[in-house]
């Protein structure tokens, strides 16, 4: 009876190990930043917005269109209000990193699009940017900020990331 229990336990453990191997071998990357083409950008509250946060899922599919999708979420901001996502870049050869303050407002292609919050101060927007004008393989330091659409005050900021155009 005990031999049957041990064989059953060993079989279950082997099956669990096999599932883990299969699952993790299919994943591309285990880090928060998923490579030079895709970024997971966390936004932190600036100044008086310490409890606020945001996230940008920055993805460029390996296609010829070179469209970057920027699925953006914000939380704990002013309820029923509009915000804008901006980015600034420096060439990756620039030793100053993310020192640029030449902010570009993101949206639906070249048209800026706001992130509108609900009555709880949470919002979501599906933004995108066409980067066909950038040379394939070009690398940049990039950082993001969310600004109040009315006052233009910065409410969320990100760290500096490295990005390469596919």
Give a written overview of the molecule.
The protein has 166 residues and is an alpha+beta fold. Helices cover 15% and strands 41% of the residues. It has one helix and twelve strands; from the N terminus they run αββββββββββββ. Strands 1, 2, 3, 4, 5, 8, 9, 10, 11 and 12 form a ten-stranded antiparallel β-sheet that branches. A hairpin with a 5-residue loop joins β10 and β11. 22% of the residues are buried.
Order of helices and strands: HEEEEEEEEEEEE
The count of strands amounts to 12
Overall pLDDT: 84
Shape: globular
Runs in which pLDDT lies below 50 for 5 or more consecutive residues are 8-34
Helical percentage: 10-25%
Find the structural class using helix and strand composition.
Answer: alpha+beta
Strand % is 35-45%
Key words describing this protein structure:
1 helix, two-stranded antiparallel ribbon, alpha+beta, globular, 166 residues, ten-stranded antiparallel β-sheet, 41% strand
């Amino acid at each position: 009876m005990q031999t049957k229990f041990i064989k059953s336990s060993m079989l279950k453990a082997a099956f669990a190990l096999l599932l883990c191997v299969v699952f993790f071998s299919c994943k591309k990357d285990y880090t928060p930043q998923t490579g030079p083409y895709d970024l997971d950008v966390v936004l932190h509250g600036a100044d008086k917005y310490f409890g606020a946060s945001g996230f940008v899922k920055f993805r460029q599919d390996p296609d010829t269109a070179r469209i970057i999708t920027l699925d953006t979420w914000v939380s704990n901001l002013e309820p029923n209000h509009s915000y804008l996502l901006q980015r600034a870049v420096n060439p990756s050869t620039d030793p100053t990193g993310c020192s640029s303050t030449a902010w570009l407002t993101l949206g639906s292609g070249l048209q800026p699009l706001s992130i509108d919050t609900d009555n709880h101060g949470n919002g979501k927007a599906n933004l995108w940017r066409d980067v066909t004008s950038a040379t394939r393989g070009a690398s940049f330091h990039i950082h993001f900020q969310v600004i109040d659409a009315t006052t233009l005050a910065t409410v969320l900021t990100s760290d500096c990331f490295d990005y390469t155009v596919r």
